[in-house]
Queue: 4 jobs
Job 1
Amino acid sequence: MLDIDIGHPSSLDSVTHIIQVALTPIFLLSGIAALLNVFSTRLARVADRVDQLALALERANAADGLLLSVQLAYQRRRSLVLDAAVVLGALAGGATSSATLVLFLGALRNNTVVSALFILFGLAIVFTIGALAAFVTEMLMASRGLRSTVAEHCRSDPCTNGPQDG
């Protein structure tokens, strides 16, 4: 099955090279896993905020209820962007893993599979870029929401420009 004479020095070099090349996608996969962890943490924070808003909405009067409903819709949009980030990150992980598998299968078959590797690794990069773009979008949405909440609070209770010395 494997046309490599393991005892021959050039064969050992070939196997070593294959393992070294396979490590690159694995490092990318580790980075993608870290991103997915960040995305899931962000999604949990959005879910917690939705729970708080839903509870407050049950007790709110009509005027506050409208504001809370707007905030709930905003959290829904944030969760959709995070969903996109998670899906793109998962696709990037799948493409990266597939590229690694194709690399090993190509080595076992003593066959060059360059086009498949380029496509899969390219997809992994494109999906990772998409996941990062969705994450940046969600982060910007979160900061806009934070600034909006602070501005609303400052309208009802005038805010100061800095910490008060006591």
Job 2
Amino acid sequence: MTNIISKGIPIVFLLMISQVVLAQQVDIYKSYKTTLTISGTSTLHDWTMTSEAFTCQGNFKVDNNKITDVKGLTLLVPVRTLKSGKGAMDKNAYAALKEDKHQQIQFSLVSIQQQGDVLLCVGNLTIAGVTKPVEVETNCVLQADQTLQCKSKTQFKMTEYKVEPPSFMFGSVTTGDKIAIEFKISFKKNNPTNTL
């Protein structure tokens, strides 16, 4: 009887460990379809710039087809992928963003709070070489095909990042300081399951 019990203990122990590991499984998801829109105002008309060529990667923990945690989320936007459809505006925007020295806009996740499908992401946003903490509310839903669809929007002033609002036509047209940034990102699983 003692032998049966002693042989059974390692098996039970391994089963317990496996359950803990399964509870901590996390998958790396990489963006495969992205849209970033920056919108603002000017003394002439409202304006937008869009990028569809940036990358985002994160470690998402999924239980019962629901996202329960996010780790290590990073987003990189090459400045020159931002396009307005107007060459002069793009050129002035790149200059204002100091693209010659700082080629990317970057966001790195620090912490997260979750309420259902809504994730309150707290992280560091770097623009034109200046890094500041921001809070971004994100709606993130796991689809039937196991892809993730995430949408978020935030607002701030360009001068908070020491970016001088661009002007056009020899200064006769000036842009407003406040801008809105909207993200739409589709993720797919990039690797076999790992553990946190």
Job 3
Amino acid sequence: MRLLSYVTLFAVMLGGCAEKKAAVIQKPPPPLSRPRPVKKEPPPPTILSPRVGREEEDRLKQDAKSRIEEAERIVKQIDQHRLAEEQRGTFSTIQSFLSKAREALSFEDFLRAFNLADKAQILAQELLNSSR
């Protein structure tokens, strides 16, 4: 009789373990699908120049334009074919400064435009002098 109770108890235990094992082996639920984030347009660049009055703004705008024109005039005098490799890098930098100066003008960042055009003009003059 004791043997029968041991066998019954053993069968119940095995049956209980089998159920637990089956519960553990169940397939995991499918992953939740998340909506893709919507890409937003970047905000326009922030102008870091100080606020100035209308007269000062007009003067800065005119000064920036004339610096750009002067730098472009100097650049036209430079023969790119006669430049050494290092000088070509400087020439590329000048063009980059001028491009960024024009961009700053379009964003009405006149102080930045002036500073970039000033750098372009100084480099262009030095390059012109050294290439002669």
Job 4
Amino acid sequence: MLRIITFFTLIFFTTLTFAQVAPETDELPLMSQWQLYNEEGLLVKSSNFLGNPLVIHFWATWCPYCKKLQPGLDRLYQKYQADGLQMIAVSIREDEGATPQKELEGRGMSFKTLVNGTDMARNLFNVNGTPTTVFIDKTGHIVGSTRTSDPSDPRLEKIVDYIVEN
């Protein structure tokens, strides 16, 4: 039953997401293991998020579309954080001297960012541009991703609600 619900959810989100289904199986792909540092030099690992729904937001300080999307993501984070939602931004393709965490804080965002994530984004999540947002369920399966920059797109909340509830 869960697989049927997942299948119809993925079909519904095809205009928003680019879900990947593993070849010759109806299971969703598992998030690869990764580790990155934050601006303060603290190592953060994918294993820190196991057992919780996770949103990974790939962005850059120079990206105007990221700046537009982030208030919507922050509202979702604030709304679902008590239900276990984890949200982490990953800064990619930054200019020399960029300070992504300070930039997010200056914009009033409450989620944290990791830095120097360009290789991780490209190699593990097939990220080709910003913003790209990836949705991962409690079991570590990638449910879908989007390149939308519309902070009020109702499909964002629907997929966040899905990963929180399942």
